[in-house]
Design goal:
By secondary structure, the protein is an alpha+beta fold. Helix content is 40%, strand content 21%.
């Protein structure tokens, strides 16, 4: 990979990572649909992302920029199997059962299914998948997110595989297009007000 400011995240980073990505996603359309009460949303997100981040960091999929941490990305690699959750991590999900998250997840099940269906439709072959990308608002506009994207796209090109991502935020589409992704489908999900944008990047 080319020189960049990113580093691989460690288990000791979990709390800081959960804070960054929760702040970054607090007004995400899907999150807002799932958790409509904003004053409790950030705490619920932190409970979810603590477990998500611990799992992805354990699987070597988490990367960060900044000191202190200002941005994070989670990349799935074509040569790695799907993540599995341990009994220990499963136990850490219990606090979520006492929040609005289970109801929100049920409300958003059609959106989640659409995301999975589009992923399978447009990236059935080996590929790099940008699962989540989040930056603190105070750190945006400084080129930090580029350091979490370009090195992995360069690696994908060297391995001659595609890259794929998705978003429910229309304003993110031109940003990803700047890196060579092409929006291959806009898919509105009925009765949710949410549109899933599927973005595929061919080998450059």
């Amino acid at each position: 990979m080319s020189n960049s400011i990113y580093r691989q995240l460690l288990p000791s980073d979990t709390e800081a990572v959960a804070e960054v990505i929760s702040q970054a996603f607090v007004d995400d359309p899907l999150v807002s649909f799932m958790l409509p009460i904003r004053r409790t949303r950030i705490q619920t997100l932190k409970k979810f992302f603590r477990v998500y981040c611990e799992l992805e960091i354990h699987n070597g999929c988490g990367f960060g920029v900044g000191e202190p941490l200002a941005g994070v990305a989670f990349w799935k690699f074509p040569d790695r199997q799907g993540s599995s959750i341990s009994v220990k991590l499963l136990g850490k999900l219990l606090p979520l059962m006492f929040t609005m998250y289970p109801i929100g997840f049920y409300r958003a099940r059609e959106v989640m299914k659409r995301i999975d269906d589009l992923h399978e439709k447009y990236a059935a072959e080996a590929h790099f998948y940008l699962d989540n990308l989040g930056l603190l608002a105070s750190s945006r506009g400084q080129g930090l997110s580029s350091g979490l994207i370009r090195p992995f796209l360069e690696l994908a090109d060297r391995q001659k595989v595609i890259a794929y991502t998705d978003t429910v935020t229309e304003a993110n589409v031109p940003y990803y297009e700047h890196f060579g992704f092409k929006c291959v489908e806009e898919s509105p999900v009925e009765k949710t007000g949410i549109t899933v944008y599927a973005l595929r990047r061919p080998v450059q």
